[in-house]
């Protein structure tokens, strides 16, 4: 187990380093931070002082190492646009993004997996066909359009649910704010969570269905039938368990998709999360926020991949072979 | 009364280009404790016969005629749930490739215990105790330790032993073994066959042994059914069929087996290939390849008829022609 | 998998084969065309996609108005509702936007831009991906390992995020922009985000083909590596590439629309469907839903028909899966 994790750490670190380097390049080549930070009417001496203070007069690799050092201390600089520490901007917005993404992911799994199992088992029932048609439309509907349609119907026409913001939030601990504990917070979460989860839900459904069909054709399912096991045991024990292995992998990667598309959803619903901040920062070429976001995303994705690998390991005993050696053929 | 009676069974596959008859009017019986060998080339319908008996025909294949009786009761038209209770409990099955027939995510002990608990209604602890016993019976060393192993931790031969244990653990009266040794190493094949034969004899379990290996049949079976293009062309006691085959196809099959006694430069071959299901000729399906073909063979379909010590579906043994045939064989 | 290219001529009756048929005649004679005609979903999707493409490509000739001709716009025509509704006009069947622009014409012109961006970025991704896949699969060794590691790392991140970041960064880096470069940038950004899929598939097929006898024979008689890749291996991996390209076209169009909706992609002066939807979004609450919904509908119809065609093509080229 420990060896399994350790083997994956070098690559994870490599990916993080590459992304850090890319976001460092952003600083080095996009815009002149001195010109931006010092303002129009700074003297040459002031500029030189700032240049030295930022370490910009040092050799390239030293600058990179200094940059890495600052990142490790949580110093991502000041936002050009808002003039606040980037770390603080993120800390305030992260809870909103996490609550939205996790809710959407759970929604997508809780609905997508059963639908996939159902359509995989009862291939030709009318309900399966309905689910499949629905999934095809779901895959073809861009996320932002789903959001707009939901707003049009439930906010503009029916006035049932809010179309923007998080509602009222409750402070938990130092910086965490949650929308789970108030009615308006929960109401505000519904439309964004559906918007963000719908695409993934249809994707998970199609994936589970395809895997289920594949597994149902396998020899061990036929053998389980030949052993006279009841359908319930075959479907939900033998077949579903084997379907889980690829489903875990892809669902894990889908979680990454959810975080990426949270940018879109947050923009549609003006959800006060890091994705909305990111879009606003792109428009303003706010490099410190952009680079910090890149590094944060890289970290999240590396973490997701690691967790996926671990779950994979837990779900498939074939990966645990180092424990015992096979009995020799006799 | 026979344990299993298959009467005029036909299996059809409806396709876009018409209905294909994969099994055409086959009849045979298996007595309690008997080992019936079923031989034929691939595509002759051997495995399909097995699948039809345990009610696991793959769609769109379906039984289109005839009936199957087990212990005197019809089982081909049973509702799914009743058929499920028979599978594993009354009729067991062994599949070809042990690498793929075991669920890779469950321990062998769990798969054994689950089968016994479902069919025999015993407790989990009892099922586990018996599972260890079964592993020991099929010759797995250190069964108490190996019971919690996953299939991938066993070799191919060991896995097939586990599959045999799974097929027999609910004490069925009949086991359908579909090419149980084909996927295994030659060195292990004999052990697996011997194991199956011993366990079946000890319990009085009948076996339907499907294989394309005449050697396995010769060693194991009491009687043999020879299949060709979805039909049974010859049926009889193993010794007679091997030593004195009646049907020209069986003759060709026997001539193509290498033996230790006769050292021939080249093995005999049957010219041509088995017809595809969509192009089975009228009359006898073997007629285009048959060295002894005559007019009636291409016109009228022969059913099984007495041919010396066996039954053969060949017009050579038609009552009116029997003399002539005898004559001819004497000359041949 | 890649059978269609190699087998279609062989399956033709000898009589036809005697006459060298042109590529068009050969296409209508092929299994693919036969298969297409027999699938109602594919025919409908194909017809819709065809109409859409014609409408978009010939927008300057087919559209009732020119949405870019500022002289013809009149504010008195702004916010007209679509046809059956009260206050609508026949001249503007899908209504007008805030500036009095005809929505139908704007959608046709916008669809043109969406299509061009989609096609170009898929072409770009395909050229990069196929080249990398061929080189990695044929060359093998350290180069293969390096290229595939890069693809793996990129695949760790969602394509849309990469397109968004690349587009944002390149736009920020090239500060002063004129319109042409904005389209170039978005094509580059979307293309770059999608190449690994092509590379992976082509690499896999190339490795299979490389081991086959005909490639060995070509190597033995001294044909150069690049020539073998282009004349022998490439035609055999085109089937899967076509399937990925079709599905990717839908993805690319959605990605462009998303970027433009976020205000990162194309500017209002050169609006794609995404830009139109973004523009209309501001009027959702004041009741002018058609400014958003019709471009959105046009986008969904386009993407859905391409997706359906892609699904069909995948099944048609992979009989095993159907």
Walkthrough of the structure:
The complex is a heterotrimer of chains A (330), B (332) and C (322). With 330 residues, chain A is mainly α. In chain A, 73% of the residues lie in helices and 2% in strands. Chain A is built from 12 helices and 2 strands. Chain A has helices at 2-29, 33-38, 44-53, 60-72, 86-121, 126-140, 143-157, 183-216, 219-226, 231-268, 274-283, 287-315, and strands spanning 170-172, 176-178. The longest helix of chain A is centred in the C-terminal third of the chain and has 38 residues, at 231-268. Chain A starts with a helix and ends in a 15-residue tail after the last helix. Chain B has helices at residues 46-53, 80-86, 98-101, 108-120, 124-137, 143-146, 156-168, 186-203, 214-220, 238-243, 248-255, 295-299, 322-331, and strands at residues 4-15, 18-30, 35-39, 62-70, 73-74, 91-94, 174-178, 206-210, 223-228, 231-237, 305-307, 310-312. Chain B contains 13 helices and 12 strands. The mean pLDDT of chain B is 87. In chain C, α7 packs parallel to α10 (179-210), α7 packs antiparallel against α12 and α7 (103-139) packs parallel to α14. The two termini of chain C are 13 Å apart. The model of chain C is unreliable at 1-20 (pLDDT under 50).
Features:
heterotrimer, A: 330 residues, mainly alpha, two-stranded antiparallel sheet, 2 strands, globular, C: 322 residues, 0% strand, disordered N terminus
How would you summarize the topology of this molecule?
The complex is a heterotrimer of chains A (330), B (332) and C (322).
Chain A lengths: L1 H28 L3 H6 L5 H10 L6 H13 L13 H36 L4 H15 L2 H15 L12 E3 L3 E3 L4 H34 L2 H8 L4 H38 L5 H10 L3 H29 L15
Antiparallel strand pairs in A: 1-2
Chain B lengths: L3 E12 L2 E13 L4 E5 L6 H8 L8 E9 L2 E2 L5 H7 L4 E4 L3 H4 L6 H13 L3 H14 L5 H4 L9 H13 L5 E5 L7 H18 L2 E5 L3 H7 L2 E6 L2 E7 H6 L4 H8 L39 H5 L5 E3 L2 E3 L9 H10 L1
Parallel strand pairs in B: 3-8, 3-9, 6-7, 7-8
Antiparallel strand pairs in B: 1-2, 1-4, 4-5, 9-10, 10-12, 11-12
Helix pairs in contact in B: 4-5, 7-8
Chain C lengths: L2 H9 L2 H5 L4 H7 L1 H8 L1 H18 L1 H4 L40 H37 L1 H15 L3 H15 L5 H32 L2 H8 L4 H37 L11 H9 L8 H28 L5
Helix pairs in contact in C: 1-12, 5-7, 5-14, 7-8, 7-10, 7-12, 7-13, 7-14, 8-10, 9-10, 10-12, 11-12, 12-13, 12-14, 13-14
């Amino acid at each position: 187990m420990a060896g399994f994790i350790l083997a994956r750490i070098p690559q994870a670190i490599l990916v993080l380093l590459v992304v850090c380097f890319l976001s460092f390049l952003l600083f080095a080549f996009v815009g002149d931070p001195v010109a931006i930070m010092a303002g129009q009417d700074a003297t040459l001496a002031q500029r030189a002082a700032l240049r030295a203070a930022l370490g910009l007069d040092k050799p390239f690799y030293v600058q990179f190492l200094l940059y890495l050092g600052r990142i490790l201390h949580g110093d991502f600089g000041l936002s050009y646009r808002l003039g606040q520490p980037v770390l603080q901007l993120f800390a305030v917005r992260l809870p909103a993004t996490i609550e939205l993404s996790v809710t959407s992911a759970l929604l997508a799994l809780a609905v997508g997996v059963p639908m996939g199992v159902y359509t995989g088992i009862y291939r030709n029932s009318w309900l399966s066909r309905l689910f499949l048609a629905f999934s095809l439309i779901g895959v073809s509907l861009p996320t932002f359009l789903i959001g707009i349609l939901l707003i049009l119907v439930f906010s503009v026409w029916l006035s049932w649910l809010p179309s923007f913001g998080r509602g009222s939030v409750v402070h938990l601990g130092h910086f965490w704010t949650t929308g789970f504990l108030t009615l308006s917070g929960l109401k505000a979460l519904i439309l964004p969570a559906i918007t963000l989860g719908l695409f993934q839900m249809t994707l998970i459904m199609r994936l589970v269905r395809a895997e289920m069909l594949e597994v149902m054709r396998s020899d061990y399912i036929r053998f389980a039938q030949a052993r006279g096991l009841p359908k319930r045991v075959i479907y939900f024990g033998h077949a579903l368990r084997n379907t889980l292995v690829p489903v875990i992998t892809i669902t894990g990667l889908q979680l990454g998709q959810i975080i990426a598309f949270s940018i879109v959803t947050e923009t549609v619903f003006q959800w006060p999360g890091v994705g909305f901040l990111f879009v606003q920062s792109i428009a303003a070429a706010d490099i410190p926020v952009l680079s910090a976001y890149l590094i944060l995303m890289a970290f999240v994705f590396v973490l997701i991949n690691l967790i996926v690998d671990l779950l994979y390991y837990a779900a498939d005993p074939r990966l645990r072979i180092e424990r015992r050696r096979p009995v020799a053929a006799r | 009364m026979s344990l299993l009676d298959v009467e005029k069974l036909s299996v059809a596959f409806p396709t876009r280009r018409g209905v294909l008859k994969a099994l055409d009017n086959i009849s045979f019986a298996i007595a309690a404790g008997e080992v019936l060998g079923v031989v034929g080339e691939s595509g002759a319908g051997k495995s399909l016969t097995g699948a039809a008996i345990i009610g696991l025909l793959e769609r769109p294949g379906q039984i289109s005629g005839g009936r199957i009786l087990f212990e005197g009761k019809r089982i081909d038209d049973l509702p799914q749930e009743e058929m499920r209770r028979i599978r594993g409990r009354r009729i067991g099955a062994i599949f070809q490739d042990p690498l793929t027939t075991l669920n890779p995510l469950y321990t062998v002990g769990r798969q054994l215990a689950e089968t016994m608990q479902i069919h025999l209604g015993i407790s989990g602890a009892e099922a586990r105790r018996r599972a260890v016993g079964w592993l020991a019976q099929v010759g797995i060393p250190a069964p108490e330790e190996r019971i919690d192993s996953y299939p991938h931790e066993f070799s191919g031969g060991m896995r097939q032993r586990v599959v045999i244990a799974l097929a027999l653990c609910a004490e069925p009266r009949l086991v359908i073994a579909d090419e149980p040794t084909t996927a295994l190493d030659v060195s292990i094949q004999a052990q697996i066959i011997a194991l199956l034969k011993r366990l079946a004899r000890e319990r009085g379990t009948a076996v339907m042994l499907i294989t394309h290996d005449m050697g396995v049949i010769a060693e194991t079976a009491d009687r043999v059914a020879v299949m060709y293009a979805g039909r049974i062309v010859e049926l009889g006691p193993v010794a007679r069929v091997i030593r004195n085959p009646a049907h020209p196809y069986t003759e060709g099959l026997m001539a193509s087996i290498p033996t230790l006694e006769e050292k021939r430069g080249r093995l005999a071959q049957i010219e041509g290939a088995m017809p595809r299901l969509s192009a089975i000729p009228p009359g006898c399906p073997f007629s285009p390849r048959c060295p002894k073909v005559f007019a009636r063979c291409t016109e009228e379909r022969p059913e099984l008829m007495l041919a010396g010590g066996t039954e053969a579906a060949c017009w050579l043994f038609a009552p009116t022609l029997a003399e002539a045939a005898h004559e001819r064989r004497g000359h041949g | 998998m890649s059978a269609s290219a190699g087998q279609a001529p062989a399956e033709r009756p000898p009589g036809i084969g005697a006459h060298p048929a042109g590529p068009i005649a050969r296409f209508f004679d092929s299994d693919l065309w036969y298969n297409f005609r027999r699938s109602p979903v594919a025919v409908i999707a194909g017809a819709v996609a065809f109409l859409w493409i014609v409408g978009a490509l010939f927008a300057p000739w087919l559209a009732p108005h020119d949405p870019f001709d500022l002289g013809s716009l009149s504010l008195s025509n702004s916010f007209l509702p679509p046809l059956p509704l009260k206050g609508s006009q026949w001249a503007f069947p899908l209504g007008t936007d805030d500036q009095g622009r005809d929505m139908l014409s704007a959608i046709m012109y916008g669809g043109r831009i969406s299509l061009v961006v989609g096609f170009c970025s898929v072409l770009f991704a395909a050229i990069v991906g196929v080249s990398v896949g061929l080189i990695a699969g044929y060359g093998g060794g350290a180069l293969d390992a390096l290229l595939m590691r890069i693809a793996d790392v990129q695949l760790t991140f969602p394509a849309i995020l990469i397109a968004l970041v690349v587009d944002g960064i390149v736009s920020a880096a090239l500060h002063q922009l004129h319109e042409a470069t904005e389209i170039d940038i978005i094509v580059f950004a979307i293309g770059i985000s999608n190449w690994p899929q092509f590379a992976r598939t082509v690499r896999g097929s190339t490795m299979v083909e490389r081991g086959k006898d005909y490639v060995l024979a070509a190597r033995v008689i001294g044909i150069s590596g690049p020539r073998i890749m282009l004349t022998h291996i490439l035609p055999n991996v085109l089937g899967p590439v076509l399937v990925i390209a079709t599905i990717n076209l839908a993805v690319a169009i959605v990605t462009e629309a998303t970027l433009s909706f976020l205000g990162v992609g194309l500017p209002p002066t050169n609006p794609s469907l995404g830009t139109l939807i973004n523009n209309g979004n501001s009027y959702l609450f004041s009741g002018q839903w058609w400014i958003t919904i019709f471009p959105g509908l046009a986008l969904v119809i386009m993407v859905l028909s391409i997706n359906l065609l892609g699904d069909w093509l995948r099944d048609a080229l992979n009989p095993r899966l159907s």
